[in-house]
Amino acid sequence: MDASFSPEQDEIRRTLRELLHSRCGPRELRTALDTPAGHDPGLWTALAEQLGLPGLALPEAYGGVGCSATELALACEETGRALAPSPLLATAVLAAPLIAALGTDAQRAELLPRLASGKLTAALAVPGTALAAALALTGDNGGDWAGGGRAGGVQARRAADGWRLYGQVDQVLDGHSAGLLLVAAHAGGFARSRTLLFLVPGDAAGVVRVRQTALDATRPQGRVQLRDVEVDLLGDEGGREVLPALASVGDTAAAVLACEAVGAADRALERTVEYVGQREQFGRTIGSFQAVKHRLADAYVQVQAARSAAYYAAWAATPQRGAGNCATGHDEPADAGRHIAASPAERLALAQSLEALRTAAAEGIQLHGGIGFTWEHEAHLYFKRAAGDELLFGPVHRLRAHAADAARLFDTQEVAV
Protein backbone atom coordinates (compact mmCIF):
# COMPACT_ATOMS: atom_id res chain seq x y z
CA MET A 1 0.00 0.00 0.00
CA ASP A 2 1.36 3.42 -1.01
CA ALA A 3 0.10 5.93 1.56
CA SER A 4 1.22 8.99 -0.38
CA PHE A 5 -1.16 10.98 -2.55
CA SER A 6 -0.79 11.09 -6.30
CA PRO A 7 -0.15 14.39 -8.11
CA GLU A 8 -3.74 14.25 -9.40
CA GLN A 9 -5.12 13.91 -5.89
CA ASP A 10 -2.98 16.76 -4.59
CA GLU A 11 -4.15 18.92 -7.49
CA ILE A 12 -7.82 18.20 -6.71
CA ARG A 13 -7.32 19.32 -3.13
CA ARG A 14 -5.31 22.43 -4.00
CA THR A 15 -7.66 23.63 -6.72
CA LEU A 16 -10.75 23.03 -4.61
CA ARG A 17 -9.28 24.82 -1.60
CA GLU A 18 -8.47 27.86 -3.73
CA LEU A 19 -11.96 27.93 -5.22
CA LEU A 20 -13.68 27.63 -1.85
CA HIS A 21 -11.41 30.27 -0.34
CA SER A 22 -12.54 32.77 -2.98
CA ARG A 23 -16.19 31.70 -3.25
CA CYS A 24 -17.18 30.43 0.21
CA GLY A 25 -15.83 32.77 2.87
CA PRO A 26 -17.74 33.53 6.08
CA ARG A 27 -19.87 36.23 4.46
CA GLU A 28 -20.71 34.13 1.39
CA LEU A 29 -21.50 31.17 3.62
CA ARG A 30 -24.05 33.08 5.68
CA THR A 31 -25.63 34.54 2.55
CA ALA A 32 -26.01 31.07 1.05
CA LEU A 33 -27.63 29.70 4.21
CA ASP A 34 -30.35 32.36 4.00
CA THR A 35 -31.40 31.41 0.46
CA PRO A 36 -34.46 29.17 -0.06
CA ALA A 37 -32.27 26.28 -1.23
CA GLY A 38 -29.74 26.72 1.57
CA HIS A 39 -26.77 26.80 -0.79
CA ASP A 40 -25.28 29.04 -3.47
CA PRO A 41 -26.29 27.81 -6.96
CA GLY A 42 -23.38 29.74 -8.45
CA LEU A 43 -20.88 27.87 -6.26
CA TRP A 44 -22.51 24.56 -7.17
CA THR A 45 -22.20 25.41 -10.86
CA ALA A 46 -18.53 26.25 -10.36
CA LEU A 47 -17.88 23.00 -8.49
CA ALA A 48 -19.58 21.05 -11.27
CA GLU A 49 -18.25 22.82 -14.37
CA GLN A 50 -14.73 23.73 -13.26
CA LEU A 51 -13.89 20.67 -11.14
CA GLY A 52 -16.45 18.03 -12.14
CA LEU A 53 -17.11 17.32 -8.48
CA PRO A 54 -20.59 15.74 -8.80
CA GLY A 55 -19.22 13.17 -11.26
CA LEU A 56 -15.84 12.68 -9.63
CA ALA A 57 -16.53 9.05 -8.66
CA LEU A 58 -18.85 8.19 -11.56
CA PRO A 59 -17.65 6.19 -14.58
CA GLU A 60 -16.53 8.09 -17.65
CA ALA A 61 -19.11 6.15 -19.67
CA TYR A 62 -21.79 8.18 -17.91
CA GLY A 63 -20.07 11.55 -18.11
CA GLY A 64 -18.12 11.20 -14.86
CA VAL A 65 -14.43 11.69 -14.16
CA GLY A 66 -13.82 8.02 -13.39
CA CYS A 67 -12.09 8.48 -10.04
CA SER A 68 -12.59 6.42 -6.90
CA ALA A 69 -14.08 7.03 -3.48
CA THR A 70 -10.63 8.16 -2.34
CA GLU A 71 -10.68 11.24 -4.55
CA LEU A 72 -14.27 12.01 -3.57
CA ALA A 73 -13.37 11.78 0.12
CA LEU A 74 -10.35 14.06 -0.32
CA ALA A 75 -12.52 16.59 -2.12
CA CYS A 76 -15.05 16.48 0.70
CA GLU A 77 -12.27 17.13 3.20
CA GLU A 78 -11.89 20.52 1.55
CA THR A 79 -15.63 21.23 1.47
CA GLY A 80 -15.70 20.29 5.15
CA ARG A 81 -12.97 22.82 5.95
CA ALA A 82 -15.14 25.58 4.50
CA LEU A 83 -18.44 24.08 5.76
CA ALA A 84 -19.53 24.65 2.17
CA PRO A 85 -23.28 24.03 1.83
CA SER A 86 -23.93 22.21 -1.44
CA PRO A 87 -25.87 19.19 -2.80
CA LEU A 88 -22.60 17.24 -3.10
CA LEU A 89 -23.20 14.80 -0.22
CA ALA A 90 -26.82 14.09 -1.11
CA THR A 91 -26.20 13.85 -4.86
CA ALA A 92 -22.73 12.36 -5.38
CA VAL A 93 -22.29 10.30 -2.20
CA LEU A 94 -25.78 8.99 -1.44
CA ALA A 95 -28.00 9.08 -4.53
CA ALA A 96 -25.76 8.63 -7.58
CA PRO A 97 -24.08 5.39 -6.38
CA LEU A 98 -27.49 3.83 -5.75
CA ILE A 99 -28.65 4.67 -9.26
CA ALA A 100 -25.39 3.27 -10.64
CA ALA A 101 -25.75 0.08 -8.61
CA LEU A 102 -29.49 -0.60 -8.90
CA GLY A 103 -30.75 1.29 -11.95
CA THR A 104 -31.59 -0.25 -15.29
CA ASP A 105 -29.42 0.55 -18.28
CA ALA A 106 -31.99 3.10 -19.43
CA GLN A 107 -32.17 4.75 -15.99
CA ARG A 108 -28.39 4.98 -15.74
CA ALA A 109 -28.09 6.43 -19.24
CA GLU A 110 -30.78 9.01 -18.53
CA LEU A 111 -29.87 10.10 -15.00
CA LEU A 112 -26.16 9.61 -14.35
CA PRO A 113 -24.86 12.05 -17.01
CA ARG A 114 -27.19 14.76 -15.67
CA LEU A 115 -26.05 14.08 -12.11
CA ALA A 116 -22.39 14.07 -13.16
CA SER A 117 -22.78 17.45 -14.85
CA GLY A 118 -24.46 18.99 -11.81
CA LYS A 119 -27.53 19.96 -13.83
CA LEU A 120 -29.61 17.51 -11.79
CA THR A 121 -29.37 17.13 -8.02
CA ALA A 122 -30.77 14.21 -6.08
CA ALA A 123 -31.60 13.27 -2.49
CA LEU A 124 -32.08 9.99 -0.65
CA ALA A 125 -35.28 9.95 1.40
CA VAL A 126 -35.67 7.32 4.12
CA PRO A 127 -38.50 7.56 6.66
CA GLY A 128 -38.16 8.98 10.12
CA THR A 129 -34.65 9.40 11.52
CA ALA A 130 -33.43 6.15 9.99
CA LEU A 131 -30.70 7.36 7.61
CA ALA A 132 -27.90 5.86 9.72
CA ALA A 133 -29.83 2.58 10.03
CA ALA A 134 -30.61 2.45 6.30
CA LEU A 135 -26.92 2.87 5.45
CA ALA A 136 -25.96 0.20 8.02
CA LEU A 137 -23.79 2.67 9.92
CA THR A 138 -25.10 1.89 13.38
CA GLY A 139 -26.39 -1.65 12.88
CA ASP A 140 -27.48 -4.16 10.27
CA ASN A 141 -30.06 -2.55 8.00
CA GLY A 142 -32.34 -5.56 7.69
CA GLY A 143 -34.94 -4.23 10.15
CA ASP A 144 -38.20 -2.37 9.62
CA TRP A 145 -36.58 1.08 9.49
CA ALA A 146 -38.48 2.01 6.31
CA GLY A 147 -41.86 1.35 7.87
CA GLY A 148 -44.34 -1.09 6.49
CA GLY A 149 -47.92 -2.16 6.97
CA ARG A 150 -49.09 -0.73 10.28
CA ALA A 151 -45.61 0.69 11.03
CA GLY A 152 -46.18 3.84 8.96
CA GLY A 153 -43.32 5.33 6.97
CA VAL A 154 -43.73 5.38 3.19
CA GLN A 155 -45.95 2.81 1.53
CA ALA A 156 -45.77 1.63 -2.08
CA ARG A 157 -48.65 -0.02 -3.87
CA ARG A 158 -49.15 -1.29 -7.35
CA ALA A 159 -51.65 0.47 -9.58
CA ALA A 160 -52.84 0.01 -13.12
CA ASP A 161 -50.37 2.63 -14.34
CA GLY A 162 -47.38 1.47 -12.23
CA TRP A 163 -46.40 2.25 -8.66
CA ARG A 164 -47.79 4.86 -6.27
CA LEU A 165 -46.36 6.15 -2.99
CA TYR A 166 -48.03 7.55 0.08
CA GLY A 167 -46.30 8.76 3.24
CA GLN A 168 -43.94 11.33 4.68
CA VAL A 169 -40.20 11.68 5.24
CA ASP A 170 -39.13 14.32 7.73
CA GLN A 171 -35.33 14.61 7.47
CA VAL A 172 -34.11 14.54 3.88
CA LEU A 173 -30.77 16.16 3.10
CA ASP A 174 -31.49 18.74 0.38
CA GLY A 175 -34.93 17.16 0.04
CA HIS A 176 -36.61 20.55 -0.35
CA SER A 177 -34.52 21.53 -3.38
CA ALA A 178 -33.32 18.34 -5.12
CA GLY A 179 -34.57 17.76 -8.63
CA LEU A 180 -34.85 14.02 -8.04
CA LEU A 181 -35.83 12.05 -4.94
CA LEU A 182 -34.83 8.44 -4.24
CA VAL A 183 -37.51 7.32 -1.83
CA ALA A 184 -37.23 4.14 0.24
CA ALA A 185 -40.65 2.55 0.72
CA HIS A 186 -42.19 -0.71 1.78
CA ALA A 187 -44.29 -2.80 -0.58
CA GLY A 188 -46.17 -6.02 -0.12
CA GLY A 189 -48.21 -5.28 3.01
CA PHE A 190 -47.42 -5.94 6.64
CA ALA A 191 -46.71 -9.67 6.67
CA ARG A 192 -44.57 -9.83 3.51
CA SER A 193 -43.24 -6.30 3.19
CA ARG A 194 -39.93 -5.52 1.52
CA THR A 195 -37.93 -2.37 0.94
CA LEU A 196 -37.73 -0.87 -2.54
CA LEU A 197 -36.34 2.39 -3.92
CA PHE A 198 -38.36 4.64 -6.20
CA LEU A 199 -37.50 7.56 -8.47
CA VAL A 200 -39.64 10.61 -7.75
CA PRO A 201 -39.23 13.89 -9.67
CA GLY A 202 -39.16 16.79 -7.25
CA ASP A 203 -41.97 18.53 -9.10
CA ALA A 204 -44.21 15.46 -9.45
CA ALA A 205 -47.92 15.85 -8.75
CA GLY A 206 -48.68 15.02 -5.13
CA VAL A 207 -45.21 15.88 -3.81
CA VAL A 208 -45.16 18.59 -1.12
CA ARG A 209 -41.75 19.77 0.13
CA VAL A 210 -40.89 22.20 2.91
CA ARG A 211 -37.47 23.22 4.17
CA GLN A 212 -36.98 22.30 7.82
CA THR A 213 -35.14 24.24 10.51
CA ALA A 214 -32.06 22.12 11.19
CA LEU A 215 -29.52 22.28 13.99
CA ASP A 216 -26.78 22.47 11.37
CA ALA A 217 -27.86 25.07 8.82
CA THR A 218 -24.94 24.11 6.56
CA ARG A 219 -26.71 20.79 5.93
CA PRO A 220 -30.18 21.97 4.82
CA GLN A 221 -32.97 19.44 5.24
CA GLY A 222 -36.50 19.19 3.94
CA ARG A 223 -39.72 17.43 4.82
CA VAL A 224 -41.22 15.51 1.91
CA GLN A 225 -44.88 14.51 1.77
CA LEU A 226 -46.01 11.98 -0.84
CA ARG A 227 -49.74 12.03 -1.55
CA ASP A 228 -50.54 9.14 -3.87
CA VAL A 229 -47.62 10.00 -6.17
CA GLU A 230 -47.07 8.11 -9.40
CA VAL A 231 -43.45 6.90 -9.42
CA ASP A 232 -40.98 4.63 -11.19
CA LEU A 233 -39.22 1.74 -9.49
CA LEU A 234 -35.44 2.07 -9.39
CA GLY A 235 -34.11 -0.95 -11.28
CA ASP A 236 -35.96 -4.17 -12.01
CA GLU A 237 -38.15 -5.81 -9.42
CA GLY A 238 -36.14 -9.00 -9.63
CA GLY A 239 -32.78 -7.23 -9.71
CA ARG A 240 -30.19 -6.59 -7.07
CA GLU A 241 -31.43 -6.33 -3.48
CA VAL A 242 -31.80 -2.84 -2.06
CA LEU A 243 -30.47 -3.45 1.45
CA PRO A 244 -26.97 -4.66 0.48
CA ALA A 245 -26.72 -1.77 -1.97
CA LEU A 246 -27.59 0.72 0.77
CA ALA A 247 -24.99 -0.85 3.07
CA SER A 248 -22.36 -0.62 0.34
CA VAL A 249 -23.16 3.05 -0.15
CA GLY A 250 -22.90 3.40 3.63
CA ASP A 251 -19.25 2.29 3.42
CA THR A 252 -18.39 5.09 1.03
CA ALA A 253 -20.56 7.62 2.88
CA ALA A 254 -18.83 6.86 6.19
CA ALA A 255 -15.38 7.36 4.65
CA VAL A 256 -16.43 10.58 2.93
CA LEU A 257 -18.07 11.93 6.07
CA ALA A 258 -14.98 11.05 8.10
CA CYS A 259 -12.73 13.06 5.77
CA GLU A 260 -15.24 15.90 5.74
CA ALA A 261 -15.28 15.99 9.55
CA VAL A 262 -11.47 15.96 9.64
CA GLY A 263 -11.39 18.94 7.30
CA ALA A 264 -13.81 20.85 9.51
CA ALA A 265 -11.89 19.90 12.68
CA ASP A 266 -8.59 20.98 11.15
CA ARG A 267 -9.98 24.37 10.17
CA ALA A 268 -11.64 24.92 13.56
CA LEU A 269 -8.35 24.15 15.29
CA GLU A 270 -6.40 26.32 12.86
CA ARG A 271 -8.66 29.30 13.53
CA THR A 272 -8.29 28.80 17.29
CA VAL A 273 -4.50 28.66 17.09
CA GLU A 274 -4.51 31.87 15.05
CA TYR A 275 -6.71 33.59 17.63
CA VAL A 276 -4.78 32.59 20.75
CA GLY A 277 -1.61 33.79 19.05
CA GLN A 278 -3.12 37.28 18.74
CA ARG A 279 -5.35 37.73 21.79
CA GLU A 280 -3.50 39.28 24.74
CA GLN A 281 -4.30 38.93 28.43
CA PHE A 282 -2.17 40.05 31.38
CA GLY A 283 0.34 41.56 28.97
CA ARG A 284 0.99 38.42 26.89
CA THR A 285 -0.78 36.35 24.24
CA ILE A 286 -3.06 33.71 25.73
CA GLY A 287 -1.45 31.13 23.47
CA SER A 288 1.72 31.42 25.52
CA PHE A 289 0.05 30.02 28.64
CA GLN A 290 0.93 26.39 29.29
CA ALA A 291 -2.65 25.32 29.99
CA VAL A 292 -3.80 26.66 26.61
CA LYS A 293 -0.88 24.95 24.85
CA HIS A 294 -1.74 21.62 26.45
CA ARG A 295 -5.39 21.82 25.43
CA LEU A 296 -4.55 22.68 21.86
CA ALA A 297 -1.86 20.00 21.71
CA ASP A 298 -4.35 17.37 22.84
CA ALA A 299 -6.85 18.54 20.21
CA TYR A 300 -4.13 18.49 17.54
CA VAL A 301 -3.17 14.90 18.34
CA GLN A 302 -6.82 13.86 18.20
CA VAL A 303 -7.35 15.55 14.82
CA GLN A 304 -4.22 14.00 13.31
CA ALA A 305 -5.19 10.54 14.53
CA ALA A 306 -8.64 11.01 13.03
CA ARG A 307 -7.08 12.12 9.74
CA SER A 308 -5.04 8.92 9.52
CA ALA A 309 -8.14 6.83 10.22
CA ALA A 310 -10.20 8.79 7.67
CA TYR A 311 -7.60 8.40 4.93
CA TYR A 312 -7.40 4.68 5.58
CA ALA A 313 -11.19 4.44 5.45
CA ALA A 314 -11.22 6.26 2.11
CA TRP A 315 -8.72 3.75 0.77
CA ALA A 316 -10.64 0.82 2.23
CA ALA A 317 -13.94 2.00 0.72
CA THR A 318 -12.47 2.03 -2.79
CA PRO A 319 -13.40 -1.11 -4.79
CA GLN A 320 -9.91 -1.21 -6.34
CA ARG A 321 -8.53 -1.39 -2.78
CA GLY A 322 -5.85 1.12 -3.55
CA ALA A 323 -5.21 4.80 -3.04
CA GLY A 324 -3.74 5.40 -6.45
CA ASN A 325 -4.77 7.62 -9.32
CA CYS A 326 -8.20 8.13 -10.75
CA ALA A 327 -9.58 5.03 -12.39
CA THR A 328 -9.92 4.85 -16.13
CA GLY A 329 -13.66 4.33 -15.75
CA HIS A 330 -15.59 1.22 -14.73
CA ASP A 331 -18.95 0.21 -16.07
CA GLU A 332 -19.85 -2.00 -13.15
CA PRO A 333 -21.08 -0.54 -9.86
CA ALA A 334 -19.16 -0.91 -6.62
CA ASP A 335 -18.75 -4.35 -5.08
CA ALA A 336 -22.17 -5.95 -5.18
CA GLY A 337 -21.31 -8.86 -2.94
CA ARG A 338 -20.72 -7.12 0.37
CA HIS A 339 -22.63 -8.41 3.33
CA ILE A 340 -25.02 -6.04 5.06
CA ALA A 341 -22.71 -5.96 8.10
CA ALA A 342 -19.77 -4.29 6.38
CA SER A 343 -16.14 -3.70 7.24
CA PRO A 344 -15.71 -1.81 10.54
CA ALA A 345 -12.92 0.48 9.24
CA GLU A 346 -15.23 3.13 7.82
CA ARG A 347 -17.48 3.23 10.89
CA LEU A 348 -14.56 3.51 13.29
CA ALA A 349 -13.03 6.29 11.21
CA LEU A 350 -16.32 8.17 11.16
CA ALA A 351 -16.69 7.83 14.92
CA GLN A 352 -13.13 9.02 15.54
CA SER A 353 -13.48 11.95 13.13
CA LEU A 354 -16.79 13.13 14.58
CA GLU A 355 -15.29 13.00 18.05
CA ALA A 356 -12.25 14.99 16.90
CA LEU A 357 -14.49 17.60 15.31
CA ARG A 358 -16.57 17.91 18.46
CA THR A 359 -13.40 18.38 20.56
CA ALA A 360 -11.81 20.92 18.20
CA ALA A 361 -15.04 22.91 17.89
CA ALA A 362 -15.66 22.92 21.63
CA GLU A 363 -12.10 24.02 22.38
CA GLY A 364 -12.45 26.72 19.75
CA ILE A 365 -15.56 28.15 21.39
CA GLN A 366 -13.97 28.02 24.84
CA LEU A 367 -10.63 29.55 23.88
CA HIS A 368 -12.19 32.29 21.80
CA GLY A 369 -13.72 33.54 25.04
CA GLY A 370 -16.72 35.84 24.85
CA ILE A 371 -16.60 36.25 21.08
CA GLY A 372 -16.74 32.47 20.62
CA PHE A 373 -20.27 32.39 22.03
CA THR A 374 -21.66 35.02 19.67
CA TRP A 375 -23.89 34.34 16.69
CA GLU A 376 -21.69 36.53 14.49
CA HIS A 377 -18.61 34.34 14.91
CA GLU A 378 -18.23 31.11 12.91
CA ALA A 379 -17.17 28.94 15.87
CA HIS A 380 -20.71 27.78 16.60
CA LEU A 381 -21.15 26.57 13.00
CA TYR A 382 -18.38 24.00 13.44
CA PHE A 383 -19.84 22.82 16.73
CA LYS A 384 -23.28 22.48 15.13
CA ARG A 385 -21.77 20.50 12.27
CA ALA A 386 -20.32 18.05 14.80
CA ALA A 387 -23.59 17.75 16.72
CA GLY A 388 -25.73 17.60 13.58
CA ASP A 389 -23.65 14.85 11.97
CA GLU A 390 -23.89 12.76 15.13
CA LEU A 391 -27.66 13.08 15.03
CA LEU A 392 -27.81 12.12 11.35
CA PHE A 393 -25.11 9.47 11.08
CA GLY A 394 -24.29 8.38 14.63
CA PRO A 395 -24.06 8.69 17.54
CA VAL A 396 -20.40 7.89 18.06
CA HIS A 397 -20.94 5.13 20.61
CA ARG A 398 -23.32 3.29 18.27
CA LEU A 399 -20.91 3.58 15.35
CA ARG A 400 -18.23 1.98 17.50
CA ALA A 401 -20.57 -0.68 18.86
CA HIS A 402 -21.60 -1.72 15.35
CA ALA A 403 -17.97 -1.81 14.21
CA ALA A 404 -17.13 -4.02 17.18
CA ASP A 405 -20.01 -6.36 16.32
CA ALA A 406 -18.94 -6.52 12.67
CA ALA A 407 -15.39 -7.38 13.73
CA ARG A 408 -16.70 -9.97 16.25
CA LEU A 409 -14.58 -8.23 18.84
CA PHE A 410 -16.49 -9.53 21.83
CA ASP A 411 -17.39 -12.99 20.58
CA THR A 412 -16.68 -15.55 23.26
CA GLN A 413 -13.98 -17.98 22.24
CA GLU A 414 -12.41 -20.84 24.09
CA VAL A 415 -8.80 -20.16 24.98
CA ALA A 416 -6.42 -23.10 24.97
CA VAL A 417 -4.65 -23.56 28.30
Secondary structure class reads: alpha+beta
> SSE string, helix = H, strand = E?
HHHHHHEHEEEEEEHEEHHHH
- Please state the average pLDDT score: 89
Uncertain stretches of 5 or more adjacent residues = 320-325, 327-341
Helix content: 40-55%
Major sheet size, sense and barrel closure? 5 strands, mixed, barrel
Number of H/I helices: 12
How large, in whole angstroms, is the Cα Rg?
22 Å
Euclidean distance between termini CA atoms: 37 Å
Number of strands: 9
Assign an overall shape: globular
- How much β-strand is present in the residues? 5-15%
| Strand ordering within the main sheet | 2-3-7-5-4
Fold topology:
Blueprint: H1 7-23, H2 26-33, H3 41-51, H4 69-81, H5 88-102, H6 105-117, E1 122-125, H7 131-134, E2 154-159, E3 162-173, E4 180-187, E5 194-201, E6 207-212, E7 221-233, H8 242-276, E8 280-281, E9 284-285, H9 290-316, H10 344-367, H11 379-393, H12 396-406
Parallel strand pairs: 1-4, 2-4
Antiparallel strand pairs: 2-3, 3-7, 4-5, 5-7, 6-7, 8-9
Question: Would you give an account of this structure?
Answer:
- With 417 residues, the chain is of the alpha+beta class.
- Helices cover 46% and strands 15% of the residues.
- The protein has 12 helices and 9 strands.
- It has a 5-stranded mixed β-barrel with strand order 2-3-7-5-4. Strands 8-9 form a two-stranded antiparallel ribbon.
- Strand 4 and strand 5 form a beta hairpin.
- Helix 5 runs antiparallel to helix 6, helix 5 runs antiparallel to helix 8 and helix 8 runs antiparallel to helix 11.
- The radius of gyration is 22 Å and the shape is globular.
- About 5% of the residues have low confidence.
